[in-house]
């Protein structure tokens, strides 16, 4: 068969016939047109003439030449120039007259455009989140596309049914609506398009657009097909906008703001209902043109406002103005107006959209404020207390004579200064912080005590009261300050305070002195009593009596020395650093031990002393002796009678600029968890000792602190106690 004889040459199908050597035997005009070939390809090698074809196509041709009846496929091919081409083919094996000389029929189509359309359609559905569905009422089955399943958040292998599909819709209005729409489609063939809420498998609430189209056969619905789109984001924005719009409408009506629009080319003016309330007219009485608005404006303001409208339309200046309107009943109202211009592509003004606000009350207040300011000026000049008008930067705008007199500056000098320049540095931050709160609206006024420096550099004590003054827009314009000079009062208070402190100090000194006398003399008295009992003991030998007489002499000398020391206490002045002097600590320790030697011997105490020679501390001799005596006597008093040997260790060492004195014993100890906070309190006792008075540690702590030192304690019940005293090094 020759090409000219082929009855299929003019068919619209792109086909070609190849012989066993894969050479062209026949082909259609559509083949030549599709692949841009000419008729001379007859008899030529297929692969040479069409080299850029999928390898799968070439293999399928070979298979059919080898005896396979049919092969078909679709493949995408990337050409050498980078283009992408989709091919779809069908290949059949041909045998003529049962002779084993096979040839093949190839139908090959370029489906690139078709495939691209399909891909774009799929992509657009994915982007728009549009899925498909089909309800077969004959088979009672339901089909969901992949995207429809994704919207419902079910897996790809999910098989829906009609009842479960309805249950995805949110219970209530949405479910009732879809049930009604589906039933109407089945009963009457009515299509639907609606927006409802569903609850996905994961519990997420989602807005969707559902569209259904019924197919009718002989008046009976056999199938419903439709689409299903995720519109949640758009719907929620829409609902949010609706809420905002309703709020805006309510807000503008509540605060008395009207919204208007002026269509410039058509000279049409549109008002919302609030505008009619602001102008005191009925909607029926307004013609809706610019001239109708101008007729409402006060005659004295018409020319100015007309110029401002024209300037805004010409782009010269924004429309932001205040004018008066006259109501039909003759009332005059003040209106604040502002507008935005909308332009076309050629910069021609199309519309003015703006608002009107009734500020009559505010304007009236402003006028009253002007009168008040005039009155304030008179008050400012004649006030007996200092007054000033202060700018937001702290500069003095105006000051009265009273303030000038308090600070020693002339009015001209103060007007070239700021309040920051004359404020004491320690008071500036608190003043500025209150001022910031005033500016931020957190307070309406504030009052503080602070200090100024007058012209001579002397401190002036004042009570400052500051109030913000605001302009018609509600913004702070300046501050009004009232300054009361309290320097005389402060000086009197300081003098009184000094006298009170002196009296208190003297009373404390007298009280402390009384405690020292009572405590120290009691210790000596106890020692003397014990020595006397020794002397009265007739069983003692002559040597023991002589020893007792020696102790009596030493005790008497100690008593005399203590009385001499107590006399020094009377001379102590108020300033601690002037009454302190260097004292040899070893001397004090040895003196105290000698004074109470009888107590030590009676109680068979073992005492060790480790105090370096020449170690000096700063203190008051009587106080230091009292401290050592009290700590040692306490160790004796609260010894543990169950222990075979009671010990007291007295140790001292230098530590930087201090000297540490430590007195440790193995006595009864103190429960610090129970008594720690009360240990140094007045009249606090912690053991049932008949000689305890509860003032020893109280006195000791006060004496140590008056010498610039401190005391601490470490103790365990039945283990012993260690007192550590830190004193200034001499």
Automatic annotation (TrEMBL):
Source organism: [Muricauda] lutisoli
Ranges for domain Histidine kinase: 516-730
Keywords: Kinase, Phosphoprotein, Transferase
The PAS domain, residue ranges: 372-442
Catalytic activity: ATP + protein L-histidine = ADP + protein N-phospho-L-histidine
Superkingdom field: Bacteria
Domain PAC: 71-123, 192-243, 319-371, 446-498
Protein name: histidine kinase
Pfam families recorded: HATPase_c (PF02518), PAS_3 (PF08447), PAS_9 (PF13426)
InterPro entries, alphabetized: HATPase_C_sf, HATPase_dom, His_kinase_dom, PAC, PAS, PAS-assoc_C, PAS-like_dom_sf, PAS_fold_3
Record EC number: 2.7.13.3
């Amino acid at each position: 068969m020759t090409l000219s004889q082929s009855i299929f040459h003019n068919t619209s199908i792109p086909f070609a016939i190849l012989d066993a050597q894969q050479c062209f035997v026949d082909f259609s005009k559509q083949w030549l047109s599709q692949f841009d070939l000419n008729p001379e390809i007859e008899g030529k090698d297929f692969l040479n003439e069409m080299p850029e074809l999928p390898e799968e196509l070439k293999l399928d041709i070979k298979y059919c030449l080898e005896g396979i009846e049919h092969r078909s496929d679709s493949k995408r091919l990337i050409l050498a120039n980078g283009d992408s081409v989709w091919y779809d083919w069908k290949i059949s094996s041909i045998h003529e007259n049962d002779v084993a000389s096979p040839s093949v029929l190839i139908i090959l189509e370029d489906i690139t455009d078709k495939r691209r359309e399909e891909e774009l359609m799929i992509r657009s559905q994915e982007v728009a989140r549009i899925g498909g569905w089909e309800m077969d009422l004959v088979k009672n089955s339901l089909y969901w596309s992949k995207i429809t399943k994704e919207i419902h958040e079910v897996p790809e292998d999910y098989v829906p049914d009609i009842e479960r599909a309805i249950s995805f819709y949110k219970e209530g209005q949405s479910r009732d609506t879809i049930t009604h729409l589906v039933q109407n489609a089945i009963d009457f063939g009515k299509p639907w398009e609606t927006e409802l809420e569903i609850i996905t498998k994961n519990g997420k609430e989602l807005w969707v657009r559902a569209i259904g189209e019924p197919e009718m056969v002989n008046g009976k619905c056999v199938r419903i097909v439709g689409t299903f789109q995720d519109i949640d984001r758009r719907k929620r924005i829409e609902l949010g906008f609706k809420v905002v719009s309703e709020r805006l409408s309510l807000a503008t009506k509540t605060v008395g703001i009207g919204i208007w629009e002026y269509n410039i080319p058509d000279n049409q003016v549109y008002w919302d209902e609030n505008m009619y309330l602001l102008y005191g007219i009925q909607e029926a009485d307004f013609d809706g043109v610019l001239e109708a608005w101008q007729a409402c404006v006060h005659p004295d303001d018409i020319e100015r406002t007309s110029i401002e409208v024209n300037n805004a339309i010409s782009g010269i200046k924004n429309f932001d103005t205040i004018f008066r309107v006259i109501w039909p009943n003759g009332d005059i109202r003040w209106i604040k107006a502002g507008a935005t211009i909308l332009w076309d592509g050629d910069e021609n003004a199309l519309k003015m959209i703006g608002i009107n606000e009734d500020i009559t009350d505010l304007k009236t207040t402003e006028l009253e404020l002007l009168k008040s300011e005039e009155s304030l000026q008179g008050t400012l000049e004649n006030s007996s207390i200092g007054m000033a008008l202060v700018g937001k930067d702290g500069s003095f705008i105006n000051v009265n004579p009273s303030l000038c007199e308090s600070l020693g500056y002339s009015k001209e000098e103060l007007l070239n200064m700021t309040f920051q320049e004359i404020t004491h540095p320690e008071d500036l931050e608190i003043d500025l912080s209150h001022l910031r709160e005033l500016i931020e609206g957190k307070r309406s006024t504030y009052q503080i005590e602070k200090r100024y420096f007058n012209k001579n550099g002397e401190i002036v004590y004042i009570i400052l009261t500051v109030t913000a003054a605001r302009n018609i827009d509600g913004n702070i314009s300046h501050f009004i300050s009232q300054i009361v000079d309290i320097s005389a009062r402060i000086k009197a208070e300081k003098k009184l305070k000094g006298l009170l402190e002196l009296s208190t100090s003297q009373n404390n000194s007298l009280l402390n002195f009384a405690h020292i006398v009572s405590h120290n003399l009691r210790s000596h008295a106890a020692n003397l009593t014990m020595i006397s009992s020794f002397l009265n003991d007739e069983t003692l030998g002559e040597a023991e009596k002589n020893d007792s007489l020696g102790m009596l002499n030493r005790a008497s000398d100690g008593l005399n020395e203590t009385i001499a020391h107590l006399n020094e206490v009377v001379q102590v002045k108020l300033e601690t650093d002037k009454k302190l002097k260097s004292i040899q600590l070893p001397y004090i320790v040895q003196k105290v031990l000698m004074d109470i030697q009888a107590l030590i011997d009676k109680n068979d105490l073992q005492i060790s002393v480790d105090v370096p020679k020449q170690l000096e501390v700063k203190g008051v001799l009587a106080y230091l002796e009292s401290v050592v005596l009290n700590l040692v006597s306490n160790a004796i008093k609260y010894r543990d009678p169950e222990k075979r040997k009671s010990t007291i260790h007295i140790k001292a060492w230098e530590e930087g600029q201090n000297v540490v004195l430590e007195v440790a014993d193995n006595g009864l100890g103190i429960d610090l968890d129970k008594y720690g906070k009360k240990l140094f309190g007045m009249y606090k006792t912690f053991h049932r000792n008949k000689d305890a008075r509860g003032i020893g540690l109280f006195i000791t702590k006060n004496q140590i602190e008056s010498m610039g030192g401190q005391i601490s304690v470490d103790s365990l019940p039945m283990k012993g106690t260690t007192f550590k005293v830190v004193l200034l090094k001499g």
